[in-house]
Give the backbone structure.
Amino acid sequence: MADHGNDTSARAAGSGPRNGVSGEGSAAPALSRRRLLGTAGAAGAAGLAVGASGGVLGMTMAGGEARAALATVGSTAAAFHGRHQSGITTPLQARGHLIAFDLAPGAGRKQAAALLRRWSRTAEELMAGRAPGDDTGVALDAGPSSLTVTFGFGRTFFDRTGLEDRRPAALEPLPDFSSDELDRARGDGDLWVQIGANDALVAFHALRALQKDAGGTARLRWQMTGFNRSPGATSRPMTARNLMGQIDGTRNPRPEEKDFDERIFVRPGGEPAWMAGGSYAVVRRIRMLLDDWEEVPVERQEQVIGRRKSDGAPLSGGTETTPMDLEKRDAGGRPVIPANAHARIASPETNGGAAMLRRPFSYHDGFREDGSPDAGLLFVCWQADPLKGFIPVQRKLDRGDALSRFIRHEASGLYAVPGGCEPGEYVGQRLFEG
C-alpha cells in the first residue's frame, strides 16, 4: 500500500541504535535489537553478499561477537511519527496481538495521559528496533520486523476520565445483530492496542512491554493473538487468505484511490477536532465453523462466497481484481454470483458505496470440547465513520448472507483511534490537552 505519512516498509537501514538506555538514572549500556544496523558502514566496507533469498549474508562485530546481518524481514521498519498512526495502511504482518485495558479504580484523566506518554515512548523505541529501559530481552538481536503499535479509546474511556464532552458521536454502541453470540467480557474496553510484526518474538516483546507500562493505571480486560502468512511464503505478494481457504480483502479501498482518505480517515475540520487524521476501528472475533465448512464441496463454497477459491476471481469471470458483474446470468437465467453470496451482499455497489478497510488476523485458540477447532478471524476494519462503513454492510449481511451459517460473531468492540503524533508529542495528546 502507498505511504500515508506514517507507514514505510524499509526504513531501517539508515538509522543506527542508541548507545544508552532511555530512562532516568540508568548508566547501563543499551541492549539494542539493531546493533548490526548501527554498524552498517563497517559491514559495507568489508563487502556484503546478497543471497538468493534476498537476505544479507555479511558479518560484523558488535560487543566482541560475530553477528549475522539482519535478513529483509528483520530490517524493515514502520515510522512511529506521522499524520496517521501506523498499523492502518501498513501491509499485513505475520503476527498480531489485540489488547484491551480498563482504567484502574481511581485512575482518571491525568493518569491516562501519563500512560499514553509512556506507551508512546515505548512504541517509538520498539518500532525503531531499540530496546526500551527495563527491557525483558525477549527480542534481543532481532530487527524491528515491521512492528507497529496502534492506540485507541473505547466509549467508556470518556466517562472514566471526565472527557464526556469530547467523546465522538461515532462511538455510539454498535447495534445488535442476529448473528451475534457475544461474550461481553471479551469485547469493548477503555483502551485498545493493536500490535503487528513479522516476527512472533518481536510482537510478544511489544505486548509485554506495554503491559508492564500500564502498571497500576490500567488493567488487562482481554487479549487475542492472531497471525497471517509470513512474508516470502508465496511466490508473489497476494491478498490474505483466511482459515476457510478464501482470499480475504480483495475489494479493500486502496490508498491511490482519490476518495481513500475520505472513507478511512477523519478529515481536518471534522468532529471532534482531536480526531483529525484518525480512524475508527471495529473489532470482531469471528469463529469459523470449519468442520461444517470443510464438508461442503469447493464448488458450493465458491457459491457461498461468490468468488473462486483458487485465485479469488469473481464467479462472473476474470482475475481477482476484475470487477464483479452482478448482472451476469447463466444459461438458466440465474445470477452467476448468487443473490445471497457474501461478496455480492458486502459489495459497495449494493451498499450505497459503503466501504471499510479490512485488516484482519486469523486466530487459533486450540480445540473445543466437541473436538472442533476454536479458530477463525480477528476481524479489524477501519473507516472514517462506522455509520457509513461497517454498520450498513453488517446489517445487510445479517439479513441474508449465505456465509452466516458457517460463522459465529463472539466478541466485538468499537474504538476511536486518534491521528498520529509528531516528534516530541504522544498519541492522543490533542484529546487530553486540546
The chain has twelve helices and eleven strands. The first helix runs from residue 35 to 38. The first strand starts at residue 59 and ends at 62.
